[in-house]
Hints:
This protein has 97 residues and is an all-alpha fold. 56% of the residues lie in helices and 0% in strands.
Amino acid sequence: MREDILGLVYAAIDEVNAQAADGVPIGKAPETLLLGRDTGVDSLTFVNLIVAIEEQIQDKFGKAVVLVDENSMGLQEHPFRTVSTLANYVEKVLGNQ
């Protein structure tokens, strides 16, 4: 399941990178920083990535999920820090459904 989730996140990254006209592409590696103090992607790119992942989940698993909400933003361990932590969080959300 973990490899499926990581592949799904990478497919969403490809989608967002293809849409970015002149922005810095998101790296496709587990350690790629997404959100951080002075690093990571801009807010619009982040939103596009989350929407693309939610669409990938809908297409692949037939499940409608919301990845960003009050609960996810309030977690002690931030799930959107890196590609790896995001994939772990997606796996957890899918496991809870």
